[in-house]
Amino acid sequence: MLRLPQFSLLRPATLDEALALSAEHGSRAQLIAGGTDLLPNMKHGLFEPEFLISLQDIKELRGIRRAENGDLCLGAMTTLASLAANDELNRLVPALTQAAGLVAGPQIRSAATLGGNILLDTRCEWYNQTHFWRQALGYCLKKDGSLCHVIEGGKKCVAAASCDSAPALMVLDAELVFESARGKRQLAIRDLWRADGALHLALEPGEILVRVRVPAAALGRLGAYGKLRDRNSIDFPLLGVAARLDIDGKGLVSRAELCVTALAARPLAIGLGGLFDGLAVASEAFARATERAGALAYKRCHPLANIPGDPEWRREMVPLVVRRTLAAAAQGSGPVHPV
Ligand SMILES: Cc1cc2nc3c(=O)[nH]c(=O)nc-3n(C[C@H](O)[C@H](O)[C@H](O)COP(=O)(O)OP(=O)(O)OC[C@H]3O[C@@H](n4cnc5c(N)ncnc54)[C@H](O)[C@@H]3O)c2cc1C
Ligand code: SF4
Predict the structure, then answer these.
(1) How far apart are alpha carbons 148 and 160 in whole angstroms?
(2) How many CA atoms does the CB half-sphere of 114 hold within 13 Å?
(3) What per-residue confidence (pLDDT) applies to 339?
């Protein structure tokens, strides 16, 4: 049995208290939301905080509401289960609710939060292991070591962004609202991830993610999420694809977005140019455009031996998942489980 290391649990009741504790304890403390990723990682010796600052009691981090300008505001502590079960959200942000509903299994989704999912650590077969296992291999440069087992001679970690909500929020142009003892900061989600799996988040010290804003213009659009994984009942993505299609007053596509995750340290937006512009979703031309989008994504996606699943097989699956996810968005029939 793997044991948790010793730590002190701090339970602030307000955001201000949490920000003060975060500033006081600095790098000796870590925030905990649902704990569904952090606690297993602590058992593996990947994180060794002296203090855990729990966000559970902070009301300001909860709630789903519409801002005055129509934007959708999702509290960082919103659970994935409540996102997935919300009919109104299924209509407004289908790719996001479908992605939330495919994270892990029901028990984990009832504790796991949107904030924790967005800020999830990157994953790698050589890293998400026990301390004993990693020590036997001489560790790796993401934690305690100096070499990478995935890329021989590699100087940068390529562990994979594995959070299912990420591509969905990318196609929705989401904005993240952070607070720290220094004040408030708003960051476009596309600027959150860096191309280094060991330092993959553009977070500043002591920052707490307070809420996610989805602009009004992105709400009520067609969307879907497709997820490739070993067991559809629980696993992390081997590939995750989110699609968004905006339809104009004449019933034609005016904007199409596609984003892929579980490749390297950050999700990858696949630029589609004007491939779908002016097409009716029920047309032959739309079906041909999904084929071309699949081919475009295949060119851009190069899965690595960082997470389970043969990288070549994962790459061959890219066009299939992309085509099916775009078709599901068009038909409103997502989510997509290709295997
Ligand atoms: C068996 C299993 C299967 C899983 N499958 C999947 C899967 O398929 N897809 C997937 O995406 N994830 C999966 N996960 C990982 C995890 O359950 C989810 O990503 C979950 O959404 C994490 O949320 P949490 O609230 O539990 O985060 P926590 O574990 O509490 O925190 C995760 C990280 O985010 C930080 N954090 C959390 N909230 C905030 C905040 N508001 N501000 C600043 N920092 C914050 C924490 O400090 C920590 O570093 C799986 C986990 C397990 C154990
Ligand atoms: S990609 Fe390389 S450095 Fe990063 S966790 Fe895996 S083995 Fe370690």
Answers:
(1) 13
(2) 30
(3) 75
In the chain, what's the furthest Cα-to-Cα distance?
A: 62
User: pTM value?
Assistant: 0.97
Q: Which atom of ligand 1 is nearest to the CA of 33?
A: 30
Angle between helices 311-331 and 284-300 (to 10 degrees): 150
Cβ(163) to ligand 1 under 6 A? yes
Q: Which residue reads 């902070």 in tokens?
A: 58
- Structure tokens, 326: 């775009």
Pairing state between β 64-66 and 72-75: antiparallel
Structural domains in the chain, CATH included, are: 1-60 (3.30.43.10), 61-119+160-217 (3.30.465.10), 222-331 (3.30.390.50)
Tell me the ligand closest to 149's alpha carbon.
Answer: 2
**Gap from CA of 112 to ligand 1 centroid (Å):** 6
Give the per-residue SS3 of 277-303.
CCCECCCHHHHHHHHHHHHHHHHHCCC
Task: State pLDDT tens for residues 253-306.
Answer: 999 999 999 999 999 999 999 999 999 999 999 999 999 999 999 999 999 999
Give the nearest ligand 1 atom to 39 CA.
Answer: 29
Q: For atom 34 of ligand 1, which residue has the closest CA?
A: 116
Mutate to test the pocket of ligand 2, among 125, 129, 133, 142 (most ligand atoms within 8 A of CB): 142
| Torsion sign across C-alpha atoms 317, 319, 324, 329 | positive
The CB of 166 under 6 Å from ligand 1? The reply is: no
Residue listed under structure tokens 């129509």: 70
Q: Report the separation in Å between the CA atom of 160 and the middle of ligand 2, taken as the mean of its atom positions.
A: 9
DSSP reduced 3-state for 143: strand
Q: What is the pLDDT of residues 46-73, one digit of tens each?
A: 999 999 999 999 999 999 999 999 999 9
Q: What angle do CA 162, 64, 201 make, to 5 degrees?
A: 30
- The answer to whether the CB of 74 falls within 8 A of the CB of 153 is no
